[in-house]
Amino acid sequence: MKNLINHIKKFMLLVLSIALFTGCEDDETILPKVEANFTYTVNINTGTVTFLNVSENGNTYHWDFGDETGSTLINPVKVYANGTYNVTLTVNNVSGASDTFEDTITILIPEDAAFPINFDDGNVNYMPTTFNGASFDIVENPDLTGDNANASMVGAITNSGAAYEGIFFNLGVNLDLSQGNTVKLNVWSDTAVDLLAKLEEGNAENTEVSASHTGTGWETLYFTFNSVGSYGVLTLFIDGPGTTSGTFYIDNLEQIDEADVPCPQTALEFPIDFECNGIDYATKIVGNVSFTVLENPQLSGINSEAGMVGQITNSGEAWENAFFNLDAAVDFSEQNAVKLKLYSTQALPIKLKFEDGTEAPIEADVNHTGSGWEELTFVYNSTASYNDMVIFVDGPGTAAGTFYIDDIEQTTGAVCEAETMQSLTAADFNLTFMADPTSNIFEDGADFEWVDNPDFDNDVNMSCKVGKITKLGNNPWDNNQIDLDAKLDFNAHSGFKMKVWSPKANSEVRIKLEEIGNPGNNVEKFTTTTVTSGWEELTFDFDAADSNKFDKVVLFLDLNANNTDTYYIDDFMLYGTGTGGSGSNDAVILDFENNLAGVTATEFSTGGALIANPVSGGINTSANVYEAAYTTGNDWWGGIGFVFDSGLDQANTVYKAKFYSTVAPTNVLFQVEVDGTNAPVGNVQEITTANEWVELTFTLANIPAGVNRVLIRPDVGNQTGMKPNTGTLYIDDITVVSDGGGSTGGGGSTGGGGSTGSNLITNGDFETGTDAGWAIFQNGGSAALDNTVNNGGSWSGKLVVGDTGGNPAFKQERIGTGNVTAGQTVTVSFDVIGTVSQPGAVVNVLLFGEGAGGASFTHTFDPKPNPEASWSTFTGTYTIPAGTDVSEGISVLIEAVCGAVSGCGVTMNIDNVSVTVN
Fold first, then answer.
1. Cα dist. 839→468, 526, 594, 834 in Å?
2. 114-260 has which fold?
């Protein structure tokens, strides 16, 4: 065995020696060549690349995938994102040989459709899901006309004719409507058809919008959604609930802002909202103002939503206007009015005129109150058609500024009522403005014009013509005057009524009657307006004693307010049948329209006040009423008393009055008496209907001589204990039902009690330097002694009140006890100086009777003091009615009053106050 092994070893050495010998004979040995190479396959749906290494004579491999990643596997698998990559393979063997192979790979993974969608990107999966019989394909545009004339790929939808068939796209990126709430697309159809677009699978409720195709080929449709949600599915129905079959094409789906949706309209015609960007407003709206269309800069009030408006800029010239060249005529044959929104911070008249029509031009005026956006309605008495519209802001005026208009459209408005008669004679004065009365009206600082009623769409004044009065601001007493043909007779009439349109509430309206040529012979009555920028009827009662004295009427509007306000008046007339003479006519003795002039009201165990009529309508549309408010905590006999300065007629036994009760059934006790005797006679009537004006009649007996007081006691029940209900009774038009004869006087002697003629006031000149004798009330203002202003001596009393409201006062109470008796005349006098700023300011002087049961009368002097820059003397007189209990004397109060009205103010000093009786 060993020999065998040795022989093998020798043989191997021999072979090796031969090999070495042979190698020494050649230059080099040829080794195998390394060749790098690869191929690959791509999954286009996932971007997965599988590499196949076909290299030769390699031992190791290094892959560079071109995205900063690599591998040493022989056949690696790589998942790519979309893009182009340079892939390099480096191959090595054990002898150190190497080779490199490089190739470029492009990855295009098909994307889900997302906005914008145009069907032209080969790497997008545009195929939607179809349902209910519809089919879909992507084809070349078959009709290169209309809104899509480009050669491109489009989507073809084929309807089978089933209801609600369609397609939906699963969007690769949600459609976020907060970035634009409108979808725009091209649609081809040769049939008029409606399309429904619906958005689903979002973070808000599903939303859908319809649009109509006219069937003319390629058209552009817009779907504006009322949402700001984000949605993942878009569904399209062609003829949704219908059964239209055929092939339709869609293309160029994109998301835009609603503001970018073009308006197809190019004609300027009603309605006009300035939202259509297809209308050339610059050439169609001209005139001599600066006019432009812009986004609403005043988002407030009735026009608070964003949108476009028209801007009118006045330079300050008279009759500046915006002239609308309409493309379609405005036809008033069916709708007789035009309404529009106008923004202004100035109170101005607005004129809207129509021209170039089938009849003569028409125009109407409406007042803007200056409160911002207001809707104005212009009513026309016409059935014609007109091609041009002209708007004047402040027409003949010269107001400069910027104004905005919007939403101009036709509507139906109330038609004014033409006047049927007019009289300027004293016997039946009735100024209705049926004819122009300008030649009969004298202007004393106040311009008068005969004009169309600017505000007749209401229940108070629907007449067509009215009087316009513009104060010139020259004097506080600007007025207008009318001379009559004879003296006025207040035996035949109760007084005047007049409808007034005031730009503000609390404006004083005063009627002064004079004798022509003798202005010192006069009488005045006044009241105040309660309505802002609206009509109301005011009443001015005059006494029979004023008959046959006066033949001139003077009208003051907002007396002592030196301004340039504009007012309108209408139906200025005599009314009623008077309070004197004989006849069978009923006479209203108290209608609350003249601030209780000549009447003193008191409340007992019942709340009460003179107020504006809160429930105008039915049989009572008057401006003012008296309120009696009661509760179950009030005595059954609680009520209201009215003392008549001139007394009542003992012969009158039947009275009637109007009542409005908030409860029913209930009853009313109506009584009359001699004030202070506590011996009334009366009658009870039932109210069976709540919340409605009714008229009750009361028949009385055994009426005492000297009767001068009416008592109205609401809800008296069975006239025991407390009132059975809680409620409110409104009272109006207390009337004497007369069948002839009778005097309106109450009688009574003026003598008795003796007269001292001496001053009953203590410390009336304030010279003690203290408030001795005076009760001082601050009441929201200031009442104090003043040693800087006086009218003799060193001291005076000072009252100050401002626009926060108040009524500071000086009062002396229960003076003249034992010396003052019924029938005497009380004279109150004092010196006054100061300033009064309107609106809302007044100075009152009140006289009270003090009886055993409390105040027996309250009288407010009128005319009132009017403080001026220099000292003047106020004097007022009052005769205490017969039978009045003044056993505890009288009281006098002087107060300065301001309502909480901006600008109101009184600063005044009083001195040398005296009260005497005779």
1. 21, 15, 19, 16
2. Jelly Rolls (2.60.120)
Sign of CA dihedral 384, 388, 392, 395: negative
Residue 846: what are its φ and ψ, rounded to 5°?
A: -120, 140
pLDDT at 6 exceeding the cut of 80:
no
On whether the CB atoms of residues 582 and 740 are closer than 8 A, the answer is: yes
Under CATH, which number does the domain 775-917 receive? 2.60.120.260
- How far apart CA 159 and CA 247 sit, in angstroms, is 6
In tens, the pLDDT along 511-520 reads: 999 999 998 8
Give 397-449 pLDDT, tens digit per residue: 999 999 999 999 999 987 788 887 899 999 999 999 999 999 999 999 999 99
Phi, psi angle pair for 777, to nearest 5°: -120, 125
Tell me how far CA of residue 161 lies from CA of 209, 218, 274, in angstroms: 21, 21, 41
Displacement of CA 849 from its chain's centroid (Å): 48
**Fold for domain 281-411?**
Jelly Rolls (2.60.120)
Gyration radius (Cα) of the chain, Å: 49
CB 694 within 8 A of CB 687: yes
Q: Does domain 430-575 sit in CATH 3.30.2350.10?
A: no
Mean pLDDT of 469-476: 89
CA distance 569 to 471: 13
Contact call for residues 865 and 832 (beta carbons, < 8 A): yes
Q: What is the pLDDT of residues 785-831, one digit of tens each?
A: 999 999 988 899 999 999 888 889 999 998 988 788 888 999 999 99
- Could you report the per-residue pLDDT of 695-732, keeping only the tens digit for each? 998 988 888 999 999 999 999 998 889 999 999 999 99
Q: Which fold has domain 38-107?
A: Immunoglobulin-like (2.60.40)
Do residues 404 and 296 lie in contact, with contact meaning Cβ atoms separated by under 8 Å? yes
pLDDT class of 765 with cuts at 50, 70, 90: very high
Residue spans of beta strands (DSSP E) within 599-707: 599-604, 607-612, 624-630, 639-644, 654-661, 666-673, 681-687, 693-699
Cβ burial of 52 (10 Å; 0-12, 13-18, 19+) is exposed
Specify whether the CB–CB gap between 396 and 373 falls below 8 A. no
Q: How far apart are CA 651 and CA 223, in angstroms?
A: 84
Where are the domain boundaries for CATH 2.60.120.260 in the chain?
Answer: 114-260, 281-411, 430-575, 587-736, 775-917
